[in-house]
Amino acid sequence: MICLVHPSQTFQTSCIQIPLPERGPTITKPPPDRTSFGTGVYFITASAAGHRSIFQTDRMARLLIDTLYFYRCEHRFLIHRFVVMRDHFHLLLSPADADLPRAVQFIKGGFSYRAKKKLGVSFEIWERGYVDHRIRDANDYRRHVEYIDQNPVRARIVAEPGEYPYSSVHPSNWILVLRG
Fold first, then answer.
1. pTM for this one?
2. pLDDT digit string, tens, across residues 67-97
3. CB-based contacts of 55: which residues, under 8 Å, 6+ apart?
4. Which CATH architecture fits 2-19+37-178?
């Protein structure tokens, strides 16, 4: 397996890092409308404690993205889409061997650990819990992809989704998986 990870990746992973292509791949392609996702794909929202804007700094936002990639390359879950906003993140993911609560624990707990260790953060980072929605079908999947992609546009941070640096739509965050 080869993982294309964010260029600022700072953690050791079992994946081989390769350079970004000139034109990136589509991150995911939803199945035809007749296909059901069953229970495998979830839309997740988690917020910073007190809705503080802790992800407005590049260091914090990149550390969260690096944490997502680290656990993805550890086969804890698959990432379909994500966006890191100033005080929360949205994520479409499929848990691998772990269940959904465990996958979210990897993300939130892993980020908290790294933020405290690497950046000296001493405050509470996350609100308790998270909001999840199980994706029902391809139309539901498309609606949530659109919601994630357009989140920074609706917040009037950027004019186009691909301009936002903390989103899976931005070229610096493309993920490529090749399986043998």
1. 0.77
2. 999 999 888 999 999 999 999 999 999 998 7
3. 48, 61, 64, 84, 85, 86, 87, 88, 89, 166
4. 2-Layer Sandwich (3.30)
